[in-house]
Write a structure and sequence with these properties.
Layout: E1 2-4, E2 7-10, H1 14-25, E3 31-34, H2 45-48, E4 52-53, H3 60-75, E5 84-85, E6 89-93, H4 96-111, E7 117-119, H5 121-127, E8 138-142, E9 146-148, H6 150-163, E10 167-169, E11 174-180, E12 183-189, E13 193-195, E14 199-201, H7 207-213, E15 221-230, E16 247-250, E17 255-260, E18 263-268, E19 293-294, H8 302-311, E20 320-330, E21 337-340, E22 346-350, H9 354-370, H10 392-404, H11 428-433, E23 436-441, E24 444-450, H12 468-471, H13 477-487, E25 489-493, E26 498-503, H14 507-514, E27 526-532, E28 538-548, E29 551-556, H15 559-567, E30 576-579, E31 584-590, H16 594-599, E32 616-621, E33 624-629, E34 638-644, H17 648-657, E35 664-667, H18 669-678, H19 713-720, E36 726-733, E37 745-748, E38 751-762, E39 767-775, E40 784-789, E41 792-799
Helix pairs in contact: 1-6, 1-9, 3-9, 13-18
C-alpha cells in the first residue's frame, strides 16, 4: 500500500517546518513531513543551533529573508515560552577597519529597510552590562534582531500544519526517491511508500546524500563549528528570563555570544575548517547523542575562550557545562540552494540556517504554489551553479573558504583564490602575456585590466584620487583603457557571456511567447529584449540574433536563463535550447577605429549601409569563420565576433597583429563597466531583477504589445496604466572623487528614498556617477539627493540619461 500526499517534505527541521507552515497558509492541506529523527528535536542542525538572528546582510535578498524570519518567529506561540526574543544585537569593532566596515553596514542595512545605529563604547555597555567597553571602538546596534528558540518554533509551526490536515512522521529513514520520465513520483522510507507529484528536500547536512537517491546534486558540505555554554554567572544569579541581553558578535575575532538565562553561550569560527562528508554523518538511530554533534576539539577553543573572557570579563574562571562541534551547511558561495531541481516536481531548500529559515520557507512555498516567489531569489537559485560547482573537490575547497571568511570584511570585488584557473577563454595565453589582472566569475577568468596598458602615453593625472575602499581591487590603468576605447579600438573578451542556441521549426513562435520585444524580423536582425514572469518582473535581459529562419543565437545572463526557457517549452513544440558557451568564444571589437581594424581582415562590406547597427552576418575574419553582431555594450562603433573555441587564439592574433594605424589595445572589465554606465546600459542582477518591471527599470521601450501574446503581457498591460512608485535613475555626484560601490542608501532630508545599484567614475565625462532606484517623487531631473557612503552624506543630482552620446551617433556611424 502507498500513502498519497499533495506534497512530501523531507526534513522536519526549521526549514521543512517553515515550508510546511507556509504551504499550509496557502491552502495546501495534504502535507506530509518526514524525518529520520524524532519530532520535534530531529537531531539535525536545528536541534543544536544557537538561534541567533542577525538581519543585516550585504545581500538584499538575504536581509529580506531574515526580516521575514523575524516576523514569523515573533508571531508563533508556544506554551513553553516565546519562539523569538527580540533583544537586539551588537556587533563590536576592535579594529579601525571593522569600525569603518560597521559604518558601511549601517548604510546598506538602511537601504534594505532596517534602522540600525552606531554606538559609543559606553552606549554599547549600557545595553550589555557585561561588555568590556575599554576593549572596543564602538558597536553597531540593530534593535529588532534576536534569538530564536528553533525547536520550539518547529513544534509551533507543526501544530498549525497538523490542524490544517498535515502530518509529521518521525523515525522514518528515507531509502529511495522514485523518478519516472524525469518527474518525481514517490518517496520511499523504511516503513512506507509515499506517492506525490511534488517533493521538497529540506534535509540539511544530509541533503547531498538524499539528493543522490533522485539523481540530483546538492553542492553543500557540512562543516564543524564550536559552541559552548558556561555554568551560571554570578552577575546573572536568579535570572528567570531566557534572554534579555542583546546578542553579541565580535567579528574581528570570529566569535559570537548570547545569554542563556543565567549562563552564557559562546560560538567560535576561529578554528581551521573541519569538513565532514555527508556520507559519513550517522543517522539519529546510530548516533550516541545527536548525529549533527561531533566531539568537542578542546585545543581549538583555547584562544577563542581567552578572547571571550577579554570581551566579557564575567566569563573568567567560569567552567563550561556544554561544549560541542556542531555541523552546519556551507555552499561554494555561502548562499542557500533553492528551487526546482532537474527532476520535475522535486524542489530543494538546502543550506539554510535558522537566521533565514522563516523567510526561505515562505519563499519556497510561494514558488511552489504560484510558480514564482514574491522576492528575487536569483542569488539562491539551484540553477545558478555551473557544472564544475557540483564537483566534490570544488564544493570542498569553496566550502572551507566560506567558513574561513564567514566574519571577514569582504570587499565587493574581493576574489576567492582557489581552485583557479578553472575556465579560460582561448585568449587566456595572450592576456597573461599582456599582464592581465584576472577576476573570476562562474569559473571564468576575466581580465579586469592589463598592466601593459600602463605604458601608453595617456595623461590621467587630472583624474581625482578615489577613496581607499573604492581603490581596492582596481587600477588606474582602467582609466587608460577607458579613454583608448573611446579614441581608438579595444578588444574585450566576451567569452564568459552565456550563449544559447535556440533552433527548430517552432523556435520563432516559442521565443515570441517568451520575450517582450518583436522578434519576427528578417534573418540577420539583432534584437534586445526582456524575459518577464507573470507579474511583469524582469527574469532576464537578452540579445537575440536571428541567424536563419529557424535558428537564433541568444546572449544571456547565466544557466538560469536556459532552465527558464526549457521549463516553458510545450510538449509538442519542436525547439531545442542548447548552451553553446563552452564551445565558442567572443571578442568585442569596439571603438572609433573598429571598422578600420576588422575591415582590413575581411572582404565583407562593413559599411554602415551594408552592415547597420543591430544586425548580424556570417563573415570571415582572415581565415576565421565568425558570426558578427554589430552591437556594443560600451557605446562605441564595433562588433561582437563569435567563433568556435578552436579558432579563438587565431582570431585574437590576427586582430592584434594586423599592421595599420589602428591603435588596438586589450580592454578589461573595469573599463567595460564604467563605459556601459556612461551609456546607461543596465546590468541584470544589479540594476534590475524580477522584482522590477520594465517601466521601473527604464526599459519600457522594449515591450511591444502589438506583437501578440507573451509571458507577462497581461501584467505589463496593467502596469503600463499604473503610476510608477520608483524609477531607476542616473545620479551624478557633486564630488567627482567620491566613487561609491553599490547598495548605498539614497536619502532626501535624511529619509531613505532608494538605493544605489551600480556606480563608476565616468572618465569620458569627468564625473562620478551612480544608478539607483529612487522613489518616483524624487526621480525628477535636477532633484538633489544624498548618497550615504561610510556614514557620510554626499550630494548628487538626478540627471537625464544617457550622459554620454545621448543620441547614439557613435554607435551608428
Amino acid at each position: 500500500m502507498s500513502v498519497h500526499a499533495q506534497v512530501v517534505i523531507i526534513g522536519a527541521g526549521i526549514v521543512g517546518c517553515s515550508a510546511a507552515y507556509h504551504l499550509s497558509q496557502l491552502g495546501w492541506q495534504d502535507v506530509i513531513v518526514l524525518d529520520q529523527g524524532s519530532i520535534p528535536r530531529t537531531g539535525g542542525s536545528t536541534s543544536h543551533a544557537p538561534g541567533l538572528v542577525f538581519q543585516t546582510n550585504t545581500s538584499q535578498t538575504m536581509c529580506r529573508l531574515a526580516q521575514q524570519t523575524v516576523q514569523l518567529y515573533r508571531a508563533l506561540t508556544h506554551e513553553d515560552g516565546a519562539c523569538f526574543h527580540t533583544v537586539g544585537s551588537l556587533e563590536v569593532a576592535l579594529t579601525a577597519a571593522r569600525w569603518e566596515d560597521l559604518k558601511r553596514r549601517v548604510g546598506y542595512a538602511a537601504s534594505w529597510g532596517l534602522d540600525p545605529e552606531l554606538l559609543t563604547p559606553t552606549e554599547a555597555r549600557d545595553r550589555l552590562p557585561l561588555l568590556n567597553a575599554e576593549r572596543i571602538l564602538g558597536a553597531y546596534y540593530q534593535p529588532t534582531d534576536g534569538v530564536a528558540k528553533a525547536v520550539r518554533a518547529c513544534e509551533a509551526m507543526a501544530r498549525v500544519v497538523e490542524a490544517n490536515g498535515g502530518h509529521f512522521i518521525g523515525n522514518s529513514a528515507i531509502t529511495g526517491i522514485e523518478v519516472e520520465k524525469g518527474r518525481v513520483r514517490a518517496v520511499i522510507t523504511d516503513q512506507e511508500r509515499y506517492t506525490a507529484d511534488t517533493v521538497l528536500l529540506c534535509a540539511g547536512i544530509w541533503g547531498p546524500k538524499v539528493g543522490k537517491l533522485a539523481g540530483i546534486s546538492i553542492p553543500l558540505t557540512p562543516v564543524q563549528h564550536q559552541y559552548v555554554r558556561t555554568a551560571p554567572l554570578p552577575e546573572l544569579a536568579g535570572s528567570q528570563t531566557e534572554i534579555s541581553h542583546p546578542i553579541l558578535r565580535n567579528q574581528d575575532q570570529a566569535m559570537y555570544m548570547r545569554q542563556e538565562t543565567d549562563s552564557y553561550g559562546v560560538g567560535s569560527y576561529q578554528h581551521a575548517p573541519m569538513l565532514v562528508s555527508p556520507e559519513a554523518i550517522r543517522s539519529p538511530q546510530d548516533a550516541p547523542v545527536m548525529p549533527s554533534i561531533l566531539d568537542f576539539t578542546e585545543s581549538d577553543f583555547a584562544k577563542p575562550w581567552r578572547d571571550a573572557v577579554d570581551l566579557l570579563p564575567a566569563l573568567d574562571g567560569v567552567p563550561l557545562t556544554y561544549s560541542i562541534n556542531g555541523l552546519f551547511s556551507f555552499t561554494p558561495d555561502s548562499l542557500p540552494i533553492m528551487g526546482e531541481s532537474s527532476v520535475r516536481g522535486l524542489w530543494v531548500a538546502e543550506a539554510v540556517w535558522v537566521t533565514h529559515a522563516g523567510g526561505v520557507g515562505k519563499a519556497i512555498a510561494e514558488w511552489m504554489h504560484s510558480g514564482q516567489p514574491q522576492i528575487d531569489l536569483h542569488e539562491c537559485d539551484i540553477n545558478r551553479f555551473e557544472a564544475h560547482a557540483h564537483s566534490p573537490a570544488y564544493v570542498w575547497e569553496r566550502g572551507a573558504q566560506q567558513y574561513r571568511e564567514v566574519y571577514d570584511i569582504i570587499h565587493p570585488r574581493q576574489q576567492l583564490l582557489k581552485p583557479r584557473p578553472l575556465r579560460t577563454s582561448p585568449f587566456y595565453m595572450r592576456q597573461c602575456e599582456l599582464g592581465a589582472a584576472f577576476f573570476e566569475g562562474r569559473g571564468w577568468e576575466r581580465p579586469q585590466w592589463f598592466e601593459s596598458n600602463a605604458a601608453h602615453d595617456v595623461d590621467i593625472l587630472g583624474v581625482p584620487q578615489r577613496g581607499e575602499w573604492a581603490a581596492r581591487f582596481w587600477s588606474p590603468t582602467a582609466l587608460i583603457e577607458h579613454r583608448l576605447t573611446r579614441e581608438t579600438v579595444a578588444l574585450y573578451d566576451m567569452t564568459p557571456l552565456s550563449r544559447l542556441e535556440v533552433q527548430g521549426r517552432d523556435a520563432l513562435p516559442f521565443l515570441q511567447r517568451m520575450t517582450t520585444n518583436q522578434l519576427d524580423r528578417p534573418v540577420g536582425s539583432v534584437v534586445y529584449t526582456l524575459m518577464c514572469d507573470t507579474r511583469g518582473g524582469i527574469v532576464s535581459d537578452i540579445t537575440v540574433a536571428r541567424l536563419a529562419d529557424d535558428l537564433f543565437q541568444i546572449g544571456c545572463n547565466g544557466p538560469q536563463d536556459a532552465v527558464w526557457l526549457r521549463d516553458h517549452l510545450a510538449e509538442n513544440e519542436q525547439v531545442q535550447v542548447r548552451d553553446i558557451t563552452a564551445g565558442t568564444c567572443c571578442l568585442g571589437v569596439w571603438g572609433p577605429r573598429a571598422r578600420d581594424l576588422v575591415q582590413s581582415l575581411t572582404d565583407a562590406d562593413l559599411s554602415n549601409e551594408a552592415f547597420p547597427y543591430f544586425t548580424a552576418r556570417r563573415i570571415f575574419v582572415s581565415e576565421i569563420p565568425c558570426v558578427a553582431l554589430r552591437v556594443s555594450y560600451v557605446g562605441e562603433l564595433g562588433w561582437e565576433l563569435y567563433t568556435t573555441a578552436d579558432y579563438g587564439l587565431r582570431l585574437w592574433d590576427v586582430l592584434w597583429e594586423t599592421d595599420g594605424p589602428f591603435g588596438q589595445i586589450a580592454g578589461g572589465r573595469a573599463a567595460f563597466d564604467a563605459l556601459r554606465l556612461e551609456k546607461g546600459y543596465r546590468l541584470w542582477g544589479a540594476d534590475m531583477t524580477n522584482e522590477h518591471s520594465p517601466y521601473e527599470a527604464g526599459l519600457g521601450g522594449v515591450v511591444r504589445f502589438k506583437k501578440g501574446d507573451f509571458l507577462g503581457r497581461d501584467a505589463l498591460v496593467h502596469l503600463a496604466d499604473q503610476p510608477i512608485t520608483r524609477r531607476l535613475c542616473c545620479l551624478v555626484l557633486d564630488d567627482p572623487a567620491v566613487v561609491v560601490m553599490g547598495k548605498e542608501p539614497i536619502r532626501v532630508d535624511k529619509q531613505v528614498v532608494g538605493y544605489v545599484t551600480s556606480a563608476a567614475y565616468a572618465y569620458s565625462l569627468g564625473k562620478s556617477i551612480a544608478y539607483g532606484y529612487v522613489s518616483a517623487d524624487y526621480a525628477i531631473e535636477g532633484t538633489s539627493v544624498q548618497i550615504e557612503y561610510f556614514g557620510e552624506a554626499h550630494t548628487a543630482h538626478v540627471c537625464k540619461e544617457p550622459l554620454f552620446d545621448p543620441k547614439g551617433a557613435r554607435l551608428r556611424v
